Amino acid sequence: MTSNQTPYDNAEALSELTLGKNTRYQAQYAPQLLQAVPRQLNRDAIALSDPMPFHGADIWTAYELSWLNAKGKPMVAMAEFRLDAASKHLVESKSFKLYLNSFNQTKVDSISALQQMLQQDVSRCAEGDVTVNVIEPKQFASQRIVELPGICMDDLDIEVMDYAFNADWLHHSTDDKQLVAETLNSNLLKSNCLITSQPDWGSVMIRYQGPKIDREKLLRYLISFRQHNEFHEQCVERIFTDLKRYCHCSKLTVYARYTRRGGLDINPFRSDFEHLPENNRLARQ
After folding, report:
1. What pLDDT sits at residue 21?
2. Among 34, 53, 185, 211, whose CB has the most other CB atoms within 10 angstroms?
3. Given the residues 121, 200, 235, 247, the one annotated as active site
């Protein structure tokens, strides 16, 4: 692979995606619209293999879900999807949006029937466990806006001259004489879509135990994703892997919440010691 190539160049799994192409919307149920991207495509590039060093899920929130009831009356709801990180594929987000829009003129007998259709279709695409929770309008008032837990690093007064991805910021970034358990966060995470290079804006929480990490170097590392092209899920797994490799965390969680696009937000969670969090959105989402 030359210096200008990436692990994704000429990847057959990416060549057929509708992402970045003109697409006609379908308003009748079309589960075939869902498109899968093999997780191993990225995991090979960062030397991840079974058994995975983490568990977790891609937590999706769909804000634009509508269908027709048995009498033809339009219905609306939100939905939460949790795709197990152990699934064979991640689901490409534009195809997910097109799939959800295919319900717009589709009659579905009940919420439970809708939920079952969503679960079966997405699980089939991901080839793994998926849970779905349809959130009805009467539940909207209970939806919370929160802040990520931990100490925010964004007020550090640093000068930034280089925005190219650089894991070297994590080299020699720990103090082995100080063993800590702390939670840090940043709202400065930005990466770019792997296919279209459109900006993906996010916030990230890092909870770890182990040698104390230099916060300035960690923030510079996160900022270095600013021109980096990868899907949300791949960025989070890269952060997890780099922190494990270079910072020797004995316990680690990386949780990113990205702003929505096309009525969908994606929130990958990877941890080697914590359970999945509640799906509470941030103000920017």
Report:
1. 56
2. 185
3. 200
